[in-house]
Amino acid sequence: MSNTNIVTIGIDLGKNTFHVVGLDATGAITLRKKRSRNQLDQSLGNVPRCLIGMEACAGAHHLGRKLEKLGHQVRLLPAQYVKPYLKGHKNDFRDAEAIAEAAQRPTMRFVPLKSAEQLDLQALHRVRSRLVTQRTAVINQIRGFLLERGLPVRQGAAALRLALPQILSMPSESLSPQVVRLIQDLAEDWRYLDRRVALVTKEINKLAEQDAHCRRLMSAPGIGPIISSAMIAAIGTGDAFQKGRDFAAWLGLVPKQISTGDRTILGRISRRGNRYLRTLFIQGARAVLLRRQTWARHGFGAWLEAASKRLHSNVLVVALAAKLARMAWSMLAKGRDYEASFLGHTA
């Protein structure tokens, strides 16, 4: 059958091979091919402009930008939203068919294509997150070795950093020379990771200062270079969301709802979506709460004072993080700076 009948294509992405299924206007399969990475561009370049769906995964954004240059309309789908359209046992062609079916749905939620700059910024954040995790593991291991030998240290990396030279220099029957050497090597690893984290953080800060969207977000309380740049890397200008509440829900900062009939049951936060960005917003909210003397300067200061009297501190942190997320999306999507008076008027 001719390729001119194709209106929708689903591509199941692989490392070196791709499975392609094309549907006509009636939903019938008119194309079913397996293509290598080198063959895919030429194969789709000969197909009339159509809708192409792919799962959002590694390499999808790069390939999506290339297909858009060929004139196709590209839609990236979250993998969990494709699964309900899968028929029968799983194989690559059925996956591609399910992607094509899901891409046509008018109520489907899609992942916006990321630019090369967004992917670069995202890579920096992923490297920094890995380095911070490794540094935390090293600190915990040092603390564990000391505790096993009856040398507890006050909680916090700063306390351990101050106590470690004295512990290692003083004669002690608890620490053998072998353990002392081991902890000294771990301390050197800690210093190396500190330097690497500082370098990556400096690069992120520099990029954030150069970006107009990041500077706009950083005018809000609790949002600095790390949060603003991570938000830009994740959602761009926020076009994928219709309102701030949708963005907060995507971050998993809204209650999990289990409702039926006229009963509405709200539980803990859903914790869905971008875990890294959700964690950053919660950390930003904690930073705001620690500076109680600055609450009056914020547009939501009155709300924060009232909420602090009736909510548990952990619940208050999440509620403030959700408010900061909605506020950040509004600033980003509508292109305006933080205005405390505006927020106070609308609170």
UniProtKB/TrEMBL annotation:
GO terms for molecular function: DNA binding; transposase activity. GO terms for biological process: DNA transposition. Residues 214-297 form the Transposase IS116/IS110/IS902 C-terminal domain. Pfam families: DEDD_Tnp_IS110, Transposase_20. InterPro entries: Transp_IS110-like_N (IPR002525), Transpos_IS110 (IPR047650), Transposase_20 (IPR003346). Residues 9-147 form the Transposase IS110-like N-terminal domain. This is Transposase.
